Amino acid sequence: MPEVEILMTGSYPEWDMVDLEANYRVHRLWEATDRQTLITRVGKDIRAIATRGELGASAELMAQLPKLEIVSCYGVGTDAIDLSYARANGIRVTNTPDVLTEDVADIAIGLLLATARQIPQADVLVRSGLWGSVAMPLVTRVSGKKVGIVGMGRIGKAIAKRAAAFGCDISYFARHDHTDVPYAYEPDLIALAGWADFLIVIVPGGEATVKIINADVLKALGPNGILINVSRGTTVDEQALIAALQDRTIQAAGLDVFLNEPRVDARFLTLQNVVLQPHHGSGTVETRKAMGKLVRDNLAAHFAGSALPTPVV
Ligand code: 8YV
């Protein structure tokens, strides 16, 4: 029986579970009928948490695990992990950068094409047998348009590269000018939204970016504008977005992330001008295999006393 006890906050694909179960004594928090009972029973022996980007690890959870040494996150975003608590208590934190960059950039462009070209609506029209009797409306071109990217980290850069291949003009908002990219820096988000045809959000979640896409930004984006969010639900004021979609302050939105996911605000489901994804930007077999391996490599390195492949804290 493996000795090191780990707590998993949510499931991983079977290939990771098999490997983790072979090397650790795994406690499955998401399967517990009463989570607190499980934590109270096993908490004192837990040395690692394996979590996912959207599930994170709160200070409240970590505080109940006195032997906790490491939180390994299946995802690049660590906004749901209390990093200050981890730092203050000598708990290491790792994530899975780089391996998911290309897939998240792909889904950003995919959502933009799906939204502007109304691909899901066109699919419904053909399936419903209405082709020939109902005209598909003319839609919005993507190529050659102005793309505003909110966030110019690894994924922002990968999105920009793709948009450039579509002949788009690119400008971006970020905390600072990135001198390693050939795109125009716009430090004023409202000015960026006013300029852009399409606004793609890929900033990290967390306090600094809560509701940065607010009613004013949406108003500036305007009635022909399209918003794509592949960051976190917290970065967009959802009430303002729903209102803007309902009254056509903006044309449409393509969303991979939501507040309170997986419980999506029911009003999104009634809107025709929104394309919805179940937080699946990194959800390819190739990327998820690489993410799982990185989580396992970080845990293995930690317990072998080696340098962590992708440390955050
Ligand atoms: C994953 C993510 O969907 O990388 C992140 O921060 O949110 C995603 O890649 C998630 O962690 C998998 O559950």
Automatic annotation (TrEMBL):
User: What family does the entry list?
Assistant: Belongs to the D-isomer specific 2-hydroxyacid dehydrogenase family.
Provide GO CC annotations from the record: cytosol
This chain belongs to which protein, by name? 2-hydroxyacid dehydrogenase
UniProt KW keywords: NAD, NADP, Oxidoreductase
Segment forming the signal sequence = none
Residues forming the D-isomer specific 2-hydroxyacid dehydrogenase catalytic domain are: 24-312
InterPro entries in the cross-refs: D-isomer_2-hydroxyacid_DH (IPR050223), D-isomer_2_OHA_DH_cat_dom (IPR006139), D-isomer_DH_NAD-bd (IPR006140), NAD(P)-bd_dom_sf (IPR036291)
Q: Name one GO molecular function term.
A: NAD binding
Every D-isomer specific 2-hydroxyacid dehydrogenase NAD-binding domain range: 109-281
Which CDD domains does UniProt cross-reference here? HPPR
Recorded hits in PANTHER family, A to Z, give: 2-HYDROXYACID DEHYDROGENASE YGL185C-RELATED, 2-HYDROXYACID DEHYDROGENASE-RELATED
Q: Name one Pfam family in it.
A: 2-Hacid_dh_C
What species is this protein from? Rhizobium vallis
